[in-house]
Amino acid sequence: MKRLIIGGKEFKSRLFLGTGKFGSSKLMADAVVSSGTELVTVALKRINTSKNSTDNKIHDDILEHLQHTNINLLPNTSGARNAKEAIFAAKLAREALETNWIKLEIHPDPKYLMPDPIETLIATEELSRLGFIVMPYIHADPVLCKRLEDAGTSAVMPLGSPIGSNKGLKTIDFLRIIIEQSNVPVVIDAGIGAPSDAAKAMEIGADAVLVNTAIAIAQHPVDMAYAFKLAVEAGRIAFEAKLANKVNNAEASSPLTAFLE
Amino acid sequence: MSFQKIYDLQDWNKIKESILNKSSSDVENALSSNNRTIEDFKALISPAAVPYLEQMAQISQQLTQKRFGKTIQLYVPLYLSNECNNYCTYCGFNFNNKIERKTLNTDEILKEISEIKKQGFDHILLVTGEARQVVNLEYLVQSVNLIKSSFANTSIEVLPLLQTEYEELNRAGVYAVFVYQETYNKEKYKVYHPRGKKSDFYFRLETPDRIGRAGIHKIGLGILLGLEDWRTDSCLCALHLEYLQKKYWQTKYSISFPRIRPYKVNDQDKKIFGASESSISDKELVQLICAYRLFNEDVELSVSTRESETFRNNIIKLGVTSMSAGSKTNPGGYSGNQKSLEQFEIADERNAGQIAEIIASNDYEPVWKDWDNSFLKYE
After folding, report:
1. Contact status of A26 with chain B (Cβ, < 8 Å)
2. Model-level ipTM above the cut of 0.85
3. Which of A37, A41, B103, B320 is the most exposed place for a label (fewest CB within 10 A)?
4. Least Cα separation, residue B300 to chain A (angstroms)
5. Do B378 and A88 touch (CB under 8 A)?
6. Which of A46, A166, A211 to mutate to test the interface with B (most CBs of B within 10 A)?
7. CB contact, 8 Å: B369 with chain A?
8. Residue in B with minimal Cα distance to A19
9. Per-residue pLDDT reduced to its tens digit, A190-246
10. Domain assignment of residue A75, given as a range
């Protein structure tokens, strides 16, 4: 399996995890380990960002459960409604978590959490200029992806279907176009409801997938995380092995071009 | 356009009748629908839905976990003042109730903060009565400024204000505003609120519109359960929610379920207001909470310490998303003031740590922080 490189960093695992919605931080941490992931996203709004006055360190339950050498943190700006709020959140995340990686989430619509393409583009331009490794959550919009590339994004994260919906790859035709045209890694984010969805995303050539709800609210999150690990690996290997094309028609017994022989 | 126009088209008695006439097939249709309407909501809160309560609870749990995960947010109310010029016939703060009044000053607020922080809270709800001569915009902004460096999220439940006042509170760092209509029955509203500023039904009804226009992040709605027929009132509240969500689409919404509680009229005596035909049973309250979840998958649902320990222990998994804990409903209550008047009697007196343990023992995560003031700092 080829290594994935984002922002100059190499990843063995092509499965990224979200850390919300779990019944406990311990369960979240166990699922993270079981998934084999090396990149997890944490909502800045959930993290205690103020430093303790006695030891000048941040004490936070979620972060303390993620102290694992292989795991990189990808703070996200969930809660931001526009570019300005997101940029502020990103700066605070950089200071608090000491990383310049940022998952840009600007969804002003709290109902379906639909990403705002205009604000996302504005914030990507500014954050890239400020030296952030920007990974924006967006609609499966091929033109927006090219505009984000121009703006200096390090990856694009188009949605498979609405966040938390578990509906799978409803946007697959647009995802194919994005994957075909992209010069930056394409990470399918949101809507992946089952390991088979993740495998499918990898089979069509996605560079990685990000999964949260489907693992967090499964009956057995740790086992489900492992199932996703296997599915992502299987899908990627299948992609690299070049899937045979599906053939719908039987081969004609009297070929139309036989007269040329 | 505001909600008044929609409200004026509604007929209380017709809604009530239509809810009572819902059949079990209406309930079954509502249960199997993928896109539930206000008619489905009516079916789900109707007497016909009672035999389907377990099924409703199962769906409610599933939808809530999908949207919010296995989490419950914790918050604490801080009563800044019990001074009130209103005459709400059901409330301990009403002007006629001759018990000690108190509005906290800067030092007293700081003392309360230090006690509350010991319990671990990061989300705070500031509560006052309605006495503009002492509790006005200036006082509220000052209080928010005192509080916001100690909390990640500051909400208010105070007198209804003007749009410009909400805009100023938004800039000061207020995240959410809770304002309950008490009842959507216009005629009865006048009976419960005979005098004072609060007697203006439409000014209160239009308040969420003003909050929405001011760009506040979250609006909390609700009715006071026990005043009027809870089904009809809840249906109008759900209609209000539906209207607001379409109009102020960048705003989050929350529904609370305050049930009337006893309050003190002097050192010895307590009083509880209410006509028994309007009261809501535990079973009906569960039905109402589940019905809201089935009707609206992303609205936050909140249960306070007005409810009993048993009820709160068991409601965690059924669709609610936030709970208060360790509440004192009298100004200065956290730092030891026992003399000042409380708004109502608390039913669940367990402290924050105990509630967090109960949540965890249900395999849910207690969430202390789900917002960061840094989102507002660019102003």
Report:
1. no
2. no
3. B103
4. 11
5. yes
6. A46
7. yes
8. B69
9. 889 999 999 999 999 999 999 999 999 999 999 999 999 999 999 999 999 988 777
10. 4-260
Q: Chain A residues with CB inside 8 Å of B68's CB?
A: 21
Please judge whether A79 and B363 are an interchain contact, meaning their C-beta atoms are less than 8 angstroms apart.
no
Of B58, B39, B40, B48, residue with least CA distance to B20? B48
pLDDT band of A68, cuts 50, 70, 90: confident
Q: Name the one residue in this structure whose structure tokens are 């990224």.
A: A16
The answer to whether A225 touches A32, Cβ cutoff 8 Å, is yes
Identify the closest residue of chain A to B362 by CA–CA distance.
A23
**Mean pLDDT confidence for B145-171:** 94
pLDDT tens figures, A100-153: 999 999 998 888 889 999 999 999 999 999 999 999 999 999 999 999 999 999
- Across the A/B interface, how many CB contacts are shorter than 8 Å? 84
Chain A residues touching B298 at Cβ < 8 A: 110-112
The per-residue pLDDT for range A4-37, each reduced to its tens digit, is: 999 999 999 999 999 989 989 899 999 999 999 9
Q: Write the CATH number for A128.
A: 3.20.20.70
Which of A24, A25, A79 faces B375 most closely, judged by CB atoms?
A79
Domain ranges of chain B: 3-376
The answer to whether the CB atoms of A79 and B371 lie below 8 A apart is yes
Give chain A's domain count: 1
Please, which residues have CB within 8 angstroms of residue B7's CB and are 6 or more apart in sequence? B184, B205, B236, B240
Catalytic residue flag (residue A51): no
Long-range contact set of residues B57-62: C-beta below 8 Å, sequence gap at least 24: B57/B286, B57/B290, B57/B318, B57/B319, B59/B31, B59/B290, B59/B293, B59/B294, B60/B289, B60/B290, B60/B293, B60/B294, B60/B318, B60/B319, B61/B317, B61/B318, B61/B319
Taking residues B329-345, report their average pLDDT. 81
CATH number of B3-376: 3.20.20.70
